[in-house]
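One-letter codes give the sequence; each number marks local geometry. A record appears below:


***
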Amino acid sequence: MTRPGVAAPPAPINKPAARAAIRRAISGPLLASVFIAASAGAGTAPQEANHEKDNYQVVLNQFKLLASRGDAAAQISLGAMYASGQGVPQDYREAAAWYRKAAEQGAADAQFSLGAMHANGQGVPQDYREAAAWYRKAAEQGHARAQYHLGAMHDSGQGVPQDYRLAAIWFRKAAEQEAANARKSPAEMHGPVANGREPAKAEAPEAAKAKAGQEAAAKKAEAVARAEQESIGARRKAEKDAALKKAEADAAKADAEAARAAAELAAAAKADAAAKARQAAETAARAERDAAAARASAEAARLKTKQEAAQKTVATNGNGRDAPQGLTMNMDEPATRYRKAAEQGIADAQFALGMMYANGQGVQRDDKEAVIWYRRAAEQGYAKAQYNLGRMYINGQGVPYDYLQAVKWFSKATEQDSLEAYRQKGMLKRTASFR
């Protein structure tokens, strides 16, 4: 039993049918007289064998002559002779070569036979994708057996993506073809020559198999489609519910933050010592920034001792995605190392680049550029960047002074248990109490 999508090897040539095929495929009085004599002869069995051998040789020579001139019918016949070993030694490679010549001229029978040889690995390497490609060419020309085998390959996912809908379509086409052929006589279906195909009555099982395959594939396709629709519906409902809950939570949080900010602003507006408190806060912020810069310098000095090993790691993973928390700070390569990783969205690198611009380490000091990189890291939930961005807002460095923005970013940092952010947020609240 052949596997789905794998056609059986071409059947041996039926001698009477082959003689009839040769009469139609080849014209010429010499060959006609040879076959008339062969059909009328009634010698002994050895004599018949010798006559038949001689006839095959004549036929083979004529086929080769016509095939060399591009005659597709002769090429198909040569392929069938070599595939079945009739009149010549069986040679699948030679058969595949002649089938290919005819197939490339668009002969559906040859395309189907070449597909079968690829499916079975006869004369060519076994290649289900190549088999499916040749089956498709023949099927698109209405070749029923090619349609059936292409449907089987789609049903099993052999050589093509598994697709029950396409399997059902090709099975249906094959069944319709076979049903139409079953109503014809062999002469109507093939003419006086089989030309490599089986008679209608021999292909009746193919029609039954095609119909059964069509029904099975249609049921599978329907089940898959129904499951997909149910899955999509459930997923959409879950996404909708989740989005609604998130929107409600965000709205409640925004309302709370707005109310808190309004209360703080009102208290600050009533404070008589707002200017003095702000000056004190700015002085403290400067001190904190200087301390942070000192800590960063110390950290850079500590990490620099690991530079050689880190450089080897970065050279291997140049995209920066494998860099650990606390990238080694190399002041000699700020642009080529940190910026590349930062532009790829690595929060560690964005924060490190922000620190370098804020402190003028390895680059020209630029508070605005520092704010840009702190913000990118902060928006990814990087607590240190959130804290430093809050400091930039409270100090008016690189951005206009903005008390609410400072509170916002300190709050985000405190949510991640940043002790420095807790302390700074408390300081802001104490400052606000004086206003």
